[in-house]
Each structure stands twice: as C-alpha cells, then as structure tokens.
Amino acid sequence: MPEDTPVAVLQEYIRIRTDHPNPDYRSAVEFLKRQADRIGLPVVVHGTSSKPVVLMTWSGADPSLPSVLFNSHMDVVPVVLENWTYDPFAAHKTEDGKIYGRGSQDMKSQGVQYIESVLKLKKEGFKPTRTIHLLFVPDEEIGGKEGMASFVKSSEFKSLNVGFAIDESAASTMDFFALFFDERSGWALEVTCTGPAGHGSLLPAETAAEKARIVINEFLNFREQERLKIADYPLPELQLGNVTTVNLTMMEGGIQKNVIPDTFKLTFDIRVSVKEDHDAFANWIQSVATKAGEGVKVNFIDREEKRVPTRVDETNPFWTALKSALDKLGIKVLPIACPGCTDARFLRGVGVPSFGFSPMRNTPILLHGNDEYITEKVFLEGIDVIPSLCILGAEWIEVCIGNLIITFISAKLSCTISTGESIRRLKCDMKLSSKWTNYCCTVHPNPDYKGAVKFLKKQAKRINVHFAVYGTDSKPVVVYTWRGKNPQLPSIMLNSHIDVVPVNEASWTFKPFDAVKEHGRIYGRGSQDTKNTAIQYIESLTRLKREKFLPNRTIHITFTPDNEIGGYEGMGQFVKTDVFKKMNVGFAIDESGPGQRESFLVFNDERTHWVVQVVCRGEPGHGSLLQANSAAEKAEIVFHEFYRRREAEAMSLVGKPMPEICQGSMTSINLTQINGGTNDNTIPEEIVMTFDMRISVTEDDASVKKWLDELISKAGTGVSYNMPLKDEKLPATVLDEGNQYWAAMKKCMVSRGFTFATIASPASTDGRFLRAAGVPTVGFSALRHTPVLLHSNNEYIDESVFLEGVTIFQDIIKALSSLT
Predict the structure, then answer these.
(1) pLDDT at residue 780 in the model
(2) How far is CA 790 from CA 152, 346, 603, 670, in A?
C-alpha cells in the first residue's frame, strides 16, 4: 500500500503515542505539518509547546465571510495493554478491513478524514467561497481546559471569524449518523469520609467505611434509577444525554488490611443531563453527604455550567440547511444530546453554533474501550461525506450566516420589521447605545442610573410632559407630570423601577442587553420586570396626547431606583419627602407579574419580608477529629429545621388548580448565604447562615417569631440570630365598589372582556411603601399568556402582549384621570 493512501496516513497517526498522561504532541505536530504540506495548506501552531493547537487554513474566495471550522483532537485516552487483542498503537489492519488502535474512532480517524477531504476537493478543482479551517487541539480527553477552552479566548481564534463549527459525535451502531446539538455537563466529585480509626476486629460506630458505604449506595441507586429511565428504549445508548450518569472511578483509604482507616476518599465521574436542574442536583449531592453523617465532605474538582445548545428545529437556519444538505446525500441523522463532553461546548460557549458529527455508522461504539477499531469501509465513506458538506457549505452556510446576521446583528432591520412606534421604541431603545442600552445597563451591582435618567429625559421631551429628578445622583427618582384640568383633585401615579437584576450571560440564548427580537419575542433583562411597563406608560401618554385627551386629574409617572435590592433608598425614601406629599396621590399602580393564562394578575397585598441571620458557634479543632458541639453540627440542625418547614409550605400548594398564583398564601424560606471556616483542615469556630423569608399574608407574625425562637433553642448553646430586615405587616388595598379608583379600573378591564385574578404578591414591590404612606395601591402589569421569566434566563415579552399592554394602560389612565 503506498505511503500516502488515506488508510496509511491514519495508521501513521495512530502509531504516534498521544495517550495520556504523557502525550507525544511534538511528534503529532510534525506529522500534521507534513500532512498540511502534502495537501497544500498553510499551517500555524498556536498554544504552547506542551499544549499545541495546530491550524490548517484553506482560504475562501471571500475571506470576509464568517468561516467554517472542522475540529478534532490529537490526544487519546490511556489503554490497558493486556486487554487488547492487538497492540493499541500498532494500527493493525485485519483481513476483513478492521483498523485497530487507540484513536481509531476517537478521533484520529476524523482528523485524517478532514485532511483527505480537502485533498480530494482540491483535486476536483473545488474552490470554497468561505475560508475553511482544520483545527487539531490537545487536552480534550482531560477536559480541554488548556486546549480548546483556552484557544477560544485567544485573539488568534477571534481573528478566524468562525461562523459555524463541526466537532465530533460518536459511532452509530445503526444505519444512521449521530449528530450532537448539546451535551451533558461534566462534574468531577471527591467525597471524603472520616471516622475513628481502630483494629479490624472491632465494631466501632460511625467509621469512615460506614459513611463511604452510604455514599456509594446512594450514588449507585441514583445511577440505577437513571438507567431504568432509558432501559426500555430500543437503543438506550442513544438516550444517555437525557439522563444523568454517575460512575465511581476511584477509591482511596486504608494503610493495612487489619486496621480500620480514619479516612476514605471516593471519586465520582458525573455527567449531568441536559434536562437536569444544576442547582437542584447539587443540593441532592449535598443531601447525600448530610445523610452519610458527620465528617463527610464534598469537593467539586470540576463543575461545568450548563451551556446554550445549538437548536435543531426550524428556528435555527443552520440546522434546517444542514439537514437539507444531508438529505440530498441520502444520509440519515439522529439529533441527540452528547452523553459525554466534547470541545464543542467551548465553541458554543463563545457563541459559535456547533454540531458534533462523526461519519461512522454501522459501527460498534468503542471509544475509550478495549480493541477500539474502525473499518476501512466506514473510514473511507467518511472521506466522501465531509467533502460533500464542504461543497454544500459554500451555499448553505452563506444562507445561514446571512439569516443570523439579519436576525441577531442588524439593529436597523430589526427596527424596520417591527410594527409601530411602540415596538420600535421598546426594541430599538433597548439596543441602541443612545437609548435603551443606557437604560438597560441599570443592572446591579453597578446600575447606570445616569444613562437611564438621560434616556427618560429625552422621552419626556418627546411626549411633552414635565420632567423632574429627585432623590440623589446615586439613587435618582424620575417623575413625569401631566397636569390635569383640576389639579386640586388627588392625582394618579403609575410606577415602574429602573433597575434590573444581574444576569449570567452564558445561560442566555441571546445577549440579555441586545433586545433581540425573534418570532415576535423581544428578549432582554427587564423585558418583563419592568422596563416593558415603563415604555407602555410612556406610549400610552403618547397616544392620549395624539387624541387631544385632557386629563381631569394630574397624572404622575414615576421611575424609581433600587427596587431589586429592596427599594429602601428609592421609593422607601421618596414617600417620606415633601415632594411626594405635594403630589397628593390618590391612587397608584405598581407592578404585578405575568399571568400565564387568560387572566391578568392584580396585587392588592404582599407578603412580609424578613431576613434572618443565624450565627452558630462551637468548638474549633483539627479537621481530622470528630469532636462534639461543633458549629457544623448546630448549623445542620438549623438548616434542616428551616427546610423542613419550607417543604411543608411547598406541599400546601400541591393539588391547587393554579398553584402559581397561590404563593402569597404560603411562607417561603430560602438559604441565600452561608459563610464559615478559614482553612480546609480546620473545623470552623463559627458558621453564619442567612435566610430569606417571605411571611404569608395569612400568617401571624408572632407565631413565626415563636417558631424561630424554638428552632434556635433546639440547635443548642452558642446559636443566636438577628434580623437585618423585618418589614411590618401592612393592610391590604381594599378592592370593592367603595374604592372608586378600583371600580373605574375594573370597569375598564371588564368592558374589554378581560379577566383578572386578585392575589397577594409573593414578592416585595415598591407598592408596599405607597400603602404604608396611606396610598391605595394595586400591582398590575399588562402581561398575560406569558411565562414567568422575571429574574430568569431568557426573559422575554411577546410583541403582541407588549402592544396589548399599551392599549390597556391607555384605557386605564384615561378612565382613572377622568374621575371627578
């Protein structure tokens, strides 16, 4: 066989020992340089000598277009030589065409397929429109942190202008290919179990081994439950991405066969399902440690966050075009979540749409297994598939990138396709630097109130209402005033807050401050809470002024700071000022929340907010001891009692027809902060826990205080608590015909055929300060048929819902301000 045949090239690559823990990257790089020279591509080596990143580039006819990246990794996992039929680094080829070797499936075969595909296309005279990059990275098999993860952050990667990427999937045992659009998150966990040491003939209690047994049993029971979820599927191996797998990979403990050890260390490999809630699963892990007993500690060696998947539906033009391309080739693909971790997660993490696709079908899954092989037929078929994708890529990638540019980048186009000035202002003002970007960057902990005030001043000038700023520069309160014909009458106030809660951008499909509009949904932090309401107020006044409407009562629109951190320096202070008193407010509207069904939500009351800080003090000592009366023991009692009540409260909602609107009738408890300890080998003297409590409107504050006192007493000596915040219970706003403002508002709603549910707010709003000042106040946000996403990832408002709200507030303002 000539030396430069595809099979010979693959065999040469397999024979290079890039297995961990000491991969020979130097030889791999030299091999790849020779291949680049053979196929006529320039090659550059990035990274470091110990972690090299090899890049081959085939320049396109239009290099200004976003490029296409084909990625593979050089490294392979270790082997146990005695478990292989053939030398795993000899690349032995049997008479029936099987090429054995570590990396034959994962993924040296695919790296060579890329190279051979380019060579084949060049021989056929194909010239790509877009630049194509072939990337060969290190370190993937040990996490990729110093390989792809580091490279995507570099200026070299950014200069590649990658618009789309292909990475690995896995072999398919059937007549179709697996395509990965998402992947599970990799967690590595070390559990340390400690207890008394002793002679092996004794039966001491609470040994490290007993605790380790409990931990192992719980983890493996969970593993079996997950296995049973997919056991009845025809191809359960293809469903692994939908479950969480747990595997015990290492155990350490003991010094002699007749001595009970004082420490056992267990290491678990966990792949967290794409459907699993990370916080809930982490809590479950901690619950296992707690169940195992004192002296059991959990350490996350690695804990990857959930990333945004590449969508495989009609909303993703990349997918629709790719599927069309594969259909033309007669290739069947099954989109699934990757059961392992690949470098694609780092590409998705920087916003590059990526699919895992390895052209291996009718092949047993042997990556990381003994006797890993690929057949010559399957290997050569892959060389035919990839060039076809490259050729089609010159067409379909261009369409995809163009669509994404239109959808995601072009602010001008986004504005022109919106309907009406109201949407234009909501959407464009959220995006453009001169407008909503300043307003939208009012995210804690450093809200840009100066930019927000500038934005609001500009809007006030546009609609010709009086503009004033009160409070302080760091906590401004903006007030619009539309003077009524009878200013001596009590005025109407409509309130919203300027600030928004922080975001984790990595968990958003779109950037949370770009106001991206897709399929009628406007995504952005504050799109539900409450920048949408602010713009609805403004647009309502705009429409009323165009109608030449003249209000009988004065209308005030207020925009307050710091609601999301309590509101104490914003509305809390403003209602105490002479300015507020002179406003003579007779009725106020503040925020409520989205109604998920047909009805709107109206808040006339809200739960009382308490913050409880518990301090647990105990005997300090060395971490190898099991002394009594520790701070941790007391903290565990406190935590358990708080959450036992929390679970009971949650159960009170079970069975109710609409539990999402009943939360104001129960008391919620959440541990929000915990702090304790200075060294990893020292039992801390003090542990401090902070609990956020929202006391039900039906709960007696005195009874909650009594429960709290009893709980602290139960935890033992050295446990105390204080309350940094304890709001007082306030009377609800009465909603009956005796309240002329509510009657007018209700009539307005009913006349349009709207329904509403009157409930107590489950959270704290600025409305409580207004009620405390004696102003009848309701919380009302014109949001229905809308999922509750305030404070959540991918917060959005639907265009039709937003515009409906403008009309609703227009009617409500007109009705309230016309009261005589």
Answers:
(1) 96
(2) 31, 28, 16, 18
Question: What is residue 506's DSSP assignment?
Answer: G
Query: Rounded distance, CA 769 to CA 580, Å?
Result: 12
**Residue at token pair 């006339």:** 604
Bridge partners (DSSP) listed for residue 67: 162
106 labeled part of a ligand binding site: yes
- 646, containing H or E segment: helix 631-651
Is the confidence at residue 622, as pLDDT, over 70?
A: no
Q: Which pLDDT value is given to residue 394?
A: 44
How far, in Å, CA of 165 to CA of 443, rounded? 33
> For residues 601 and 426, what is the distance between their CA atoms, to the nearest angstrom?
22
Cα(626)–Cα(405) distance, rounded to whole angstroms? 61
Q: Check the CA dihedral 570-571-572-573 and report its sign.
A: positive
Q: Phi first, then psi: give them for residue 359, nearest 5 degrees.
A: -75, 70
- Mean pLDDT (whole number) for 698-718: 93
Instruction: Give the residue from 130, 108, 182, 5 showing the smallest Cα distance to 389.
Output: 130
Give the list of residues 6+ apart from residue 139 with CB closer than 8 angstroms, or none.
51, 73, 75, 145, 146, 147, 148
Q: Which pLDDT belongs to residue 419? A: 40
CATH 3.30.70.360 holds for 608-726 = yes
Q: Is 141 annotated as a binding residue?
A: yes
User: What's the whole-number mean pLDDT along residues 616-624?
Assistant: 59
Measured between alpha carbons, how far is 236 from 230 in angstroms, rounded to an integer?
5
DSSP label at 409? I
The pLDDT-based confidence of 647 (bands split at 50, 70, 90) is confident
Residue 350, CA distances (Å) to 381, 455, 611 in order: 32, 31, 38
pLDDT tops 70 at residue 202: no
For residue 190, what are its two tokens?
Answer: 């070390």
Residue 706: Cβ within 10 Å count: 11
> Is the pTM above the cut of 0.70?
no
Please tell me whether 466 is known to bind a ligand.
no
For the structural domain made of 6-168+342-407, what CATH number should be given? 3.40.630.10
| pLDDT tens-digit map of 292-332 | 999 999 999 889 888 778 888 877 766 776 777 778 778 78
Beta-bridged to residue 182, according to DSSP, are 337
Phi, psi of 546 (to 5 degrees): -65, -30
Q: What is the pLDDT of residues 567-576, one digit of tens each?
A: 999 999 999 9
Which residues are within 8 A (CB) of 289 and not within 5 positions of it... i.e. 6 or more apart? 191, 215, 296, 297, 298
Domain ranges of the chain: 6-168+342-407, 185-303, 427-591+765-817, 608-726
Which residues 6+ apart lie within 8 Å of 371 measured at CB?
83, 84, 85, 86, 100
One-letter amino acid for residue 141 of the chain: E
Superfamily holding 427-591+765-817: Zn peptidases (3.40.630.10)
- The answer to whether 6-168+342-407 and 427-591+765-817 have equal CATH topology is yes
Tell me how far apart the alpha carbons of residues 396 and 391 are, in angstroms, rounded to a whole number. 9
Looking at domain 185-303, its CATH class is alpha beta
Higher pLDDT, 51 or 787: 51
Of 145, 180, 188, 507, the residue nearest 344 (C-alpha): 180
Calculate the alpha carbon distances from 274 to 172, 331, 340 in Å: 21, 26, 11
pLDDT in tens, 728-769: 889 999 999 999 999 999 999 999 999 999 988 887 899 999
DSSP-derived pairing of the beta strands 756-761 and 600-606: parallel
Residue 693: strand pairing partners: 610, 669
What are the φ/ψ torsions at residue 389 (nearest 5 degrees)?
Answer: -65, -35
Provide the annotated active-site residues: 75, 140
Secondary structure class of 673 (helix, strand, coil): strand
DSSP string of 574-609, one letter each residue: HTTSHHHHHH-EEEEEE-----SSSSEEEEEEEPEE
Q: What is the mean pLDDT of the chain?
A: 84
CB 138 within 8 A of CB 330: no
| Cα 20 to chain centroid, rounded | 32
